[in-house]
Input
Amino acid sequence: MSKLVNKILSDYFEARNSIKITTLNFTVLIITIMFLASCSAEKANNTKAFYYWKTRYKLSEHDKELIKKLKFDKFYIRFFDLRIDKASGKIIPVGKLRFNNTEKYPYKYVPCVFITNEVIKKLSKEELNLLAIRINKEVEYIADKISLKKENKDSLTVSLYDELQIDCDWSVSTKDKYFFFLKKIRKNAINKKISVTLRLWQLKNKKLAGIPPVEKAMLMCYSSGNPKDYDIENSLANYNEIKKYIQGQSYPMELDIALPIYSWAILFRNRQFKTIVRNFNFKDAQSDTSLFKQIGKNRYFVKKDTVMFDYYVRYGDELRLENFNKNEMSKLIKLLKSEDLKLNNSVISFFSWDSTYIENHGYKNINEYYDNFVAP
Output
């Protein structure tokens, strides 16, 4: 909308230099701009959400306190992955969601199913049709089993979800089969919207990647470089890299947005990659000077042998702490709002829910990210 207002103003000042503009003309211009601005404000209807990407659904009392502080509308919950078993070559579900049946689930949610591109590549269209049927049945089974349902005003049991999201980094070579599969998912998911995740390369190269036949796509606004590369500063998210994919882009359907708040530490030994340490609280490295010495912007030297989160670390090891900092997040949000993307009714989701990730960012900062996104 801001681009349209700028165009009107530009046309006005150009016309002013060539013809006589009356007070009435100028008044009509101002009223038009105010009307357009008010229409934009009225149409905006954003939703705040989080991804829950764990194998067990369990909220601690601390989690529940954070939910109250963050005041969001729904979770995107990973129900299971579909991968190819290396031993048998079969397609198998991995990491099915486990749930405490005694704990009632009070939040609106979207089930998510992650499918590797290799699965799509391996299966024929006939097999993909069967897979779509099985996925819908499995999602309903898990929803029933963990009681993610409620009674409506007529005492009828209704589902707490009205959308199913498929997460797959499809390729140019698999797009036809993947889009066929999505159509079959839509056919079998009665009274459910189907959404997909959209990688940055699929936004920029939409002619090659194709447009998925669904209602909505969730643009995953983070990049993953190679965490094994010792010389890079941040493999997790880099604004300048992301900007190359978003700037000047549009998309022919409504987009939701996923912003990165997750973080991790990369452990190196003799400049060689050893492992990724997840759920690492950055404050530990910053405050424990007996164990860590800061040697760079986001790098820490390990001062003695110890065990940390089930990892054995040695004197001389290095940790590279990676996340998407507040400054880069602010620039990313400003960039997204400036582009010709359909974001008035977007879900603004944060990936992903974990108390350590939230504490590394600060819940007030996360609330600020959302407020800045929805602000006119």
Remarks:
- The chain has three domains: 2-40, 46-263+323-374, 268-318.
- The CA atoms of residues 264 and 278 lie 5 Å apart.
- The first strand starts at residue 47 and ends at 52.
- The longest helix spans residues 23-43.
